[in-house]
Amino acid sequence: MILRDALKYAVLYLGYDDVIDISNKDVTEKTNKDVRTLVRCANLTYTELICEYLPIYKKEKIRFTNGYFPFSELEDSIANIYSLKKGVENVKYSADATGIYSDDTEAELVYGIVPTQVGLDGVLEIDGRISPKVFSLGVCAEFCMINNLFEESVAFEKRYKDSLNEMLRKKTEIRIKPRRWL
Fold this sequence. Notes:
- This protein is of the alpha+beta class.
- 37% of the residues lie in helices and 19% in strands.
- The strands form 2 sheets. Strands 1-7-3-4 form a 4-stranded antiparallel sheet, with no helix packed on it. Strands 2-6-5 form a 3-stranded antiparallel sheet, with no helix packed on it.
- Helix 1 packs across helix 3.
- The radius of gyration is 21 Å and the shape is flat.
- The N and C termini lie far apart (55 Å).
- The mean pLDDT is 89.
């Protein structure tokens, strides 16, 4: 999903469509303060979405030095640790804010990443189940909060969370037993 496409809906929901022509390529974060704020809100929403709802998993082989591996040596910023394995066996570990501790010398770490910030024409790595309209609701909630529109922010946040729950809910087939006529 391209951020500019998602922000088209946010601008429309916020009622700024007559003020900001987001589809115009001349409109950038540098030329418009509201666009800069919208991009910042989109990055906040994107980070929340990836870290809490739809994690992007990374797998790396790590080597412990004196039982310690610093997170700074990973390719990406880490949000959560999902597993630490040696082969197929789980490895016991403990972690703090700076790194991970283990008695083993080598293991495979599976972790969730903190996404990098994107610009107006950047690509958001979001699961296809989340539409630009749903994402833009989260952007609107952040935008309203930043601009002290608290009631609107709560309304957008509720719509965003409800839509997320609906999109991410596992959908199963509903079967009704056949009925017979007497």
